[in-house]
């Protein structure tokens, strides 16, 4: 971990903890002010000059604190604009991946869309939004472009995949936070004369929970390493799918451990689990990524799968 | 608390060349391996292949050269192991010596024991098994009763071991014995390296539910062992066994037991499967890919001198769950003729029946989750 990353994560950890539970109009200005949006923009272009490992570390902290503000979206938008040599407009820039609603679209000053090998930047006045809400109550707005793009450029990036990576990164943090809540609860809540943590059935369930959080952590880190290498389509498909499995297994345990206490609107758990439920669908759900990955593997052949996986980690060495 | 920070797997040396060396070796021998054998590599025996691995320098890879080893890194050994497992290469003969008995002798054995066993193990010529369980002593190993009594002429051994995999093919058994009469539980236990051709030893087969013979009973009737059969410190056997078992939980073998079935599924469905089949392959790939990342991270942590007890238990539990679910998911999704002759049919039938064993060897889910919970501070 670089010194820069330690500084970055220290700052993010402090700020996001302060902003936990705060609404968008409080949280977003402070996130914007801190400059996270240019995390992936090179230093010479006025950005932070970070890598995907830095993005993972920051998004993980955002997920851990259930940050009620966009972060992945402006990071990805600024990254793509800088790559394309297009000047980024002021204010929040969100992303429109194919077939996806635009997170926080109604609050955005501009939207970056990628399709057919072309990146298009639309200002807010060229966008019409059909407003909706995620399961966690965050704006998920379907966009129609009613005006011309302010700028376009060639772009071979899979925006859907970058969005999927962001949700895996956030989920790794949210799972840790939910796990920590559950640990604290079972260690302190006394029933039948002893702490819940003393019951073997509870221990076994918590162990299972930890395994799912671990799987998402490991897959998110492997994706960041692959993105930094330059090609991560295989890894992101696998990781997004694995995240779906983890949500499927871990969210019920988190709530089971808490009983009715965890099902209230006041208790912090719902901000984590409702986000996890939403992220499982966002930027491609299980079926989408499973079919995409499965078709790719079918093309590789039975032994080809292993050879591809080995080659993809060997390339990171040396 | 991040439960599983990913430890980067960064082996030294030419890793693609090492993989190619293993793949070439497999290609030279695979013609004589039936498909079921490749789905059962822990308990498949091919002496010529074990010796070929030894000649190629792929056994005892991390051991000192003075004992026939090759002084390569743990990560290089890991690469070789995962290649062999992914190819379903038979490992039954050399497996335990290379993975557990050899390293244990290096750590605790006498100079004479190392010189006697290690070079042959590294050549793929000396095979070992582990005598732990007894009829009354399964998960609760501390209750072993097979005894070793110190006499002037040597140790006198009496009792019975059971579930000893590969004993009928092994030259020696590293055996846990009660060396202090009347001792209880974890105290008074010692390990001994017992040559299985010693008079008074009887090895009897137990056939498992797949019809395979790998389990055995070993009977000891007044067996006389020399004093120097003791491995490590008298009375320290429990601690040594725990260290030995830790070597069992961190490897790639914990998620690859069913891999040949995934290979056969992909090949049988062809390059353009229908959507549900593609989704099944995608899902299985995602789980396997994730387990590989976790397994590599765990071995990298071990190689860095840390003790990833919780990580190893997590990889084994998730890995076993995956490799056991795989045949069930394939059965549910594919209309397979379980009596059929295709690779897919034969592998599916074999692995369905073999799969209950995957979560027995090296600890059941309940045992593993207990270890994880303890690591999480929950007990």
Write the layout of secondary structure elements.
The complex is a heterodimer of chains A (318) and B (379).
Chain A: H1 3-19, H2 24-34, H3 52-64, H4 72-84, E1 93-96, E2 102-103, E3 110-115, E4 118-123, E5 127-130, E6 140-145, E7 151-154, H5 159-188, E8 190-191, E9 194-195, H6 200-229, H7 233-258, H8 269-281, H9 286-300, H10 302-314
Chain B: H1 15-29, H2 35-38, H3 47-55, H4 74-86, H5 95-108, H6 111-123, E1 128-131, E2 147-150, E3 155-162, E4 172-178, E5 189-195, E6 201-207, E7 213-225, E8 230-231, H7 237-246, H8 259-269, H9 275-303, H10 309-333, H11 343-354, H12 365-375
Parallel strand pairs in B: 1-4
Antiparallel strand pairs in B: 2-3, 3-7, 4-5, 5-8, 6-7
Helix pairs in contact in B: 1-4, 5-6, 5-7, 8-10, 8-11, 9-10, 10-11, 10-12
Q: Notable features of this structure?
A:
heterodimer; A: 318 residues; alpha+beta; Butyryl-CoA Dehydrogenase, subunit A, domain 3; 2 domains; four-stranded mixed beta sheet; three-stranded antiparallel beta sheet; 10 helices; 9 strands; 57% helix; B: 379 residues; Butyryl-Coa Dehydrogenase, subunit A, domain 1; Butyryl-CoA Dehydrogenase, subunit A, domain 2; 3 domains; four-stranded antiparallel beta sheet; 12 helices; 8 strands; 14% strand; globular
